[in-house]
Design goal:
197 residues; two-stranded antiparallel ribbon; structural constituent of ribosome; single chain; 54S ribosomal protein L31, mitochondrial; 4 strands; mainly alpha; Ribosomal_mL60
Length: 197
């Protein structure tokens, strides 16, 4: 009890992590800045991918136009399947044409719930829609993850102050706790909360 290993008052009692109950105004400002920075990165990536898709579409139309130019000898490059079956590149071209329907068919279960673009029902609750994220991403020339982020996550300007600075927690009285109590809260995007809470 006494001696070198006697428990001292600060070690024997009190919380290990001293996290204040409220988030300070400086932390709030830095948090808003982080949210805006993430929104900016998402928009920059989306614009760059759309621009790249537009450039690649222009290049593909140019290559199609150059491919339609007749051969200088007047002979067009259309080989028969027997001629194509003698070379490795020809075999690949034949396999691509014959297995097209197999590649387009999806085996197993259908698309996952997160693969659909969310829509709002008449009550205002988001439900999975009828369009696949893959199709929307192909339309806009971007990726599924960015399209899903834009569909589900509100921007910093669209968020209520309640959602910016607090988050849902079923174990807390009032079902809300400060977002700064989330572990690694400066690294994690916590923007969505259950409806009604």
């Amino acid at each position: 009890m006494f001696g070198a290993f006697r428990p001292t008052a600060p070690l024997s009692g009190g919380l290990l992590w001293k996290i204040p109950w409220r988030i300070s105004r400086h932390q709030k400002a830095r948090h808003r800045q982080r949210l805006r920075r993430v929104d900016n990165i998402v928009s920059v990536l989306d614009n760059a991918l759309q621009r790249q898709a537009g450039i690649s579409a222009q290049q593909s139309t140019r290559t199609q136009q150059t491919a339609q130019v007749p051969h200088p000898e007047g002979v067009e490059g259309q080989a028969t399947p027997e001629e194509l079956s003698h070379t490795a590149e020809g075999l690949r071209m034949l396999a691509r044409d014959t297995n097209k329907d197999v590649a387009q068919r999806r085996h197993g279960k259908g698309a996952k719930q997160g693969d659909y673009v969310p829509e709002q029902n008449p009550v205002g609750i988001e439900v999975p829609g009828k369009r696949l994220l893959r199709d929307v991403a192909a339309e806009h020339g971007t990726t599924k993850l960015i399209e899903r982020w834009k569909a589900e996550m509100p921007t910093e300007g669209e968020m209520l102050a309640k959602d910016k600075y607090t988050m849902f927690d079923k174990k807390v009285r009032g079902y809300r706790k400060g977002v700064h109590k989330l572990p690694k809260w400066t690294r994690v995007s916590q923007r969505l909360n259950p409806p009604g809470f």
